[in-house]
Amino acid sequence: MSYRKFGSSIARMKLLVGYFNIRKPRDDCRMKETLIKEFKDLKEETGQASVELILLIGSILVITIICGTYVFNVNSKINGQFNQTMTKARLFLLNKV
């Protein structure tokens, strides 16, 4: 029985509890095994999603830092060249006068 179409964990648990309440008492052993299996699946899926989210955020952070460093270096070079040009132009104008 698959509960993947139900998004939240709480909805899945409520559905499981409701499913097991309408079963006959002789199926207790199978119900218990199925319930344990569903809870394990739920726990593993939550951990997997959490790890993937952490890795995704970490990789985005690394890419942002690398791009920021590159842009900062380009900006520093442009600023240095602009200052040199302005200094040369100022000295040229002062020498003309």
Ordered list of secondary-structure elements with their pairings:
Blueprint: H1 9-21, H2 28-96
Helix pairs in contact: 1-2
Mean pLDDT: 77
Number of strands: 0
Please give the largest β-sheet. none
Radius of gyration: 32 Å
Instruction: Give the domain tally.
Output: 1
Q: Uncertain regions: pLDDT < 50 for 5+ in a row?
A: none
Instruction: Give helix % range.
Output: over 70%
Quaternary structure of the protein: single chain
Spatial shape:
rod-shaped
Q: Helix segment count? A: 2
Distance between the termini: 91 Å
Strand content: under 5%
The arrangement of helices and strands along the chain is: HH
Helix-strand makeup class: mainly alpha
Task: Describe this protein's structure.
There is one protein chain. The protein is mainly α and 97 residues long. It has one domain (9-96). Helices cover 85% and strands 0% of the residues. The protein contains two helices and no strands. Helix 1 (9-21) runs antiparallel to helix 2 (28-96). The radius of gyration is 32 Å and the shape is rod-shaped. The relative contact order is 0.05.
Short descriptors:
97 residues; 2 helices; mainly alpha
Describe what is shown at a glance.
It contains two helices and no strands.
